[in-house]
Specification:
It comes from Candidatus Spyradenecus faecavium. By secondary structure, the protein is of the alpha/beta class. It contains 28 helices and 35 strands. The protein has four domains: 161 residues, Rossmann fold, CATH 3.40.50; 243 residues, Type I PLP-dependent aspartate aminotransferase-like (Major domain) (Aspartate Aminotransferase, domain 2, 3-Layer(aba) Sandwich), CATH 3.40.640; 114 residues, Aspartate Aminotransferase, domain 1, CATH 3.90.1150.10; 99 residues, Ornithine Decarboxylase, Chain A, domain 4.
């Protein structure tokens, strides 16, 4: 088991080899004791120790962390294990924060490349007092490090502030020491209903007792209540720790998935009749939220890659054009929000720093659905250095710029149970309400005001009130516990977990390309295959996440045969199009998975490659997603409507969503006028995957129907003015 790494930046005379050795022993022993106390449930485990690496200059620190001198995305072996930085408050007689790394002030450099790793400022008597840049920084006097055994309690508290999963620890302690006879929900009562049944005992054994013993009730007040997040309960403290780890003003746990997160957030922020700019290929839950909020969606131009059957990103020039158009409108008619999906289902990451800048200039909130990439904040691979030398991060909510708000499906890629999700609110959004007086956001301060001033406290109250509309009052406590530990795990070992998988993917791509005899970009779908040859996309900062691994096939028949081979080999993919198969690489993916998949590819090597031409109906597919609503979606959704045969619905106004799933992108949306390309796209999905693959479809016999406004409703309903 490899040791975790602590980097100590010091040029102090006291930092002799003997001193550093004693410090390493002391910290390592305390760390292992901390892990045994807080991560063990029954049998003690062999936890890794800590390895101390001392460096004397900021440049030495950077070189020690990264494995290649010319690439600040690949970590060294020691860098992969980094879990803590110790930093002397002075170097070379100058305060630490007067130094720079790679042209960036030290606090900014850490925020950019290692934001989640805890930093401890080591202070000495007589040195100037430094202001800590954020909650992710702590400070301790040098005397504590000089004698870690003597100060084991203080260091133990420090470790707990970094890595203690508050809710899981309290839940574990309750089950082990305090739980007794239960006279509360749930009805299985610590698993007794399963364990003592001659028929269900096997069900109990399959899951083991802990999943039942931790499935408790809000009646256990000592653990906290998801519907009442204030106070000092373990659940509240766990959410505050998540906020610190993810670098936010506030983070909220959600146990009903990111679908619920989207609905609660958008219904908190939007008001009836307000315009919201929407990424056309956003998840159906965003469309649901817009319908329920009574907002007016303005769909941004969608790019559907018909050759591969995948969606492309919104172009920056289209976004700029839309914002320029909005600037000419009266203030009350201007859009209030932009919603973008980043990363997309196919792995495209947007230049969130530039989109954030454009939105700030126009007075829009930038809301990012980051469901598919909750890990972006935990590795320097997901950074981009711009032409001016400034580095930016791809995670949407960041302390160095980006979106105002984001939601993440923690369960999709991190160590969490299904439906585990988080809401993240940026520090910048909080500043817009409390300290920023800019004119473009006056509407936001009026919306969430207290005593005549913008109030973040009022926003937070409204958000939690809306969450109470959606949360169950009986959340699944094991799911909450996984939300707690998922962030802690990434803070402790996220660098190593991601570095390993990025290397595995790169190695796998090379092996496939060598086997097939084609370049990687013709075997594995990336940015170039999705958006085309134009270099502007890469230059503007669009990027493909390699952990969304997409195999391309030369034709639909070959892809279908490969999926049948995967079924026979007991390999399940994430989603597929007629000519691609997407494999999702997560923190739980192990190296053997790549070998099993490679064995299948060897059997069909001649089928791998980009399709030679798009299907004949490519232009039809493009037109299927080109419409704008003619009726307010909420009005259309609340009409009585009528069912008509799908094939005969052209020209009618949809009153429901039809959603091919996965990935969950609607084709029919309430308020849209139905076109022949929309109908054809749904019929093609039915023919290829069956009617069950289209959520919302009504089938009688074998005939598909869709709900539309009836003729009387079409005459009565208020029509939206066409956008100029």
């Amino acid at each position: 088991m490899e040791a975790q790494t602590v980097f100590y930046l010091t040029d102090a005379a006291e930092a002799t080899p003997d001193f550093l050795q004693e410090l390493e022993y002391g910290l390592s022993d305390l760390f292992q004791a901390f892990c045994r106390e807080h991560f063990t449930f029954e049998d003690p485990l062999d936890y890794p120790g800590l390895r101390l690496i001392a460096v004397r200059t900021p440049q030495e620190l950077e070189d020690a962390l990264f494995g290649a001198q010319d690439d600040r995305h690949i970590l060294s072996e020691a860098g992969c294990g980094c879990c803590l930085f110790l930093l002397d408050d002075e170097l070379g007689g100058r305060p630490l924060f007067e130094h720079a790394i790679a042209g960036l002030p030290i606090p900014t450099w850490f925020l950019t490349f290692f934001p989640a790793i805890p930093k401890v400022l080591v202070t000495r008597p007589g040195h100037a007092k430094l202001h800590l840049p954020s909650r992710r920084w702590s400070q301790k006097p040098f005397s504590v490090l000089a004698n870690p055994v003597r100060h084991r309690e203080r260091l133990g508290h420090l470790f707990a502030s970094f890595w203690l999963p508050r809710f899981w620890d309290a839940l574990r302690q309750y089950v082990r020491r305090r739980a007794g006879t239960a006279w509360h929900t749930p009805g299985h009562n610590n698993g007794n209903a399963f364990e003592r049944s001659p028929f269900l005992h096997g069900f109990h054994d399959a899951f083991s007792s802990m999943i039942f013993r931790t499935d408790l009730s809000v009646s256990v007040e000592s653990l906290g209540d998801l519907s009442d997040p204030e106070g000092r309960s373990p659940l509240s403290q766990a959410q505050r720790l998540a906020s610190e780890i993810f670098g936010t003003a506030q983070s909220c746990f959600v146990t009903n998935g990111t679908s619920t997160s989207n609905k609660a957030m958008l219904m908190t922020l939007l008001r009836p009749g307000e315009v919201v700019l929407l990424d056309r290929n956003c998840h159906k839950s965003v469309h649901h939220a817009v319908v329920m909020a009574g907002a007016v969606p303005r769909y941004l131009p969608a790019r559907f890659n018909a050759r591969l059957g995948v969606w492309g990103p919104v172009a920056l020039e289209d976004l700029r054009a839309e914002l320029d158009r909005a600037a000419a409108l009266p203030e009350a008619a201007r859009p209030k929000m932009l919603v973008i999906t980043t990363c997309t289902y196919e792995g495209i990451l947007y230049p969130v720093w530039e989109i954030g800048r454009l939105c700030e200039r126009a007075g829009l909130l930038f809301y990012a659905d980051e469901a598919w990439a909750p890990y972006l904040a935990f590795h320097p691979y997901y950074t981009r250095t711009l032409e001016d030398g400034v580095a930016r991060r791809y995670n949407a909510v960041s302390e160095v710029g980006g979106a105002h708000l984001s939601v993440q499906s923690t369960h999709k890629a991190l160590a969490a149970f299904s439906q585990a999700s988080m809401i993240h609110v940026s520090n910048r959004f909080k500043a817009l309400l409390e300290t920023d007086a800019s004119r473009p956001y006056r509407w936001l301060r009026r919306r969430f005001h207290l005593h005549g001033h913008g109030s973040y406290e009022k926003f937070s109250h409204d958000l939690h009130e809306m969450l109470r509309y959606w949360h169950s009052t009986s959340p699944h406590y094991p799911t909450l516990a996984t939300l707690d530990i998922a962030g802690v795990q990434m803070r402790l070992e996220g660098l190593r977990l991601l570095e390993e998988r990025l290397h595995w993917v790169a190695d796998f791509q090379r092996r496939v390309a060598d086997l097939v005899g084609r370049p990687i970009h013709e075997c594995i779908v990336g940015l170039r295959a999705i958006v085309g040859e134009d270099p502007k996309w890469k230059e503007q900062g669009y990027f493909h996440d390699p952990l969304k691994m997409i195999l391309a096939f030369r034709d639909a028949a070959s892809c279908d045969a490969f999926r049948r081979l995967l079924h026979r080999s007991h390999i399940q993919w994430e989603k597929a199009t007629p000519v691609t198969v997407l494999f999702l690489v997560t923190v739980g993916t192990v190296r053997e998975h790549f070998e099993y998949l490679f064995r299948c590819i060897r059997q069909m090597r001649d089928a791998i490659g980009l399709p030679e031409r798009p299907p004949a109906d490519a232009d039809v597919l493009e037109r299927a997603v080109a419409g704008q609503p003619v009726v307010l979606p909420r009005d259309a959704a609340l009409c009585d409507g009528e069912l008509v045969p799908l094939a005969q619905s052209e020209g009618r106004i949809a009153s429901q969503l039809l959603v091919p799933y996965p990935p969950g992108i609607p084709v029919f949306i309430p308020g849209l006028r139905i076109t022949r390309p929309m109908i054809q796209l749904i019929l093609d999905v039915i023919a290829r995957c069956g009617a069950d693959a289209v959520h919302g479809l009504f089938v009688r016999g074998k005939r598909p129907f869709v709900e539309v406004l009836n003729r009387d409703e079409e005459d009565r309903v208020h029509r939206l003015d066409p956008a100029p």
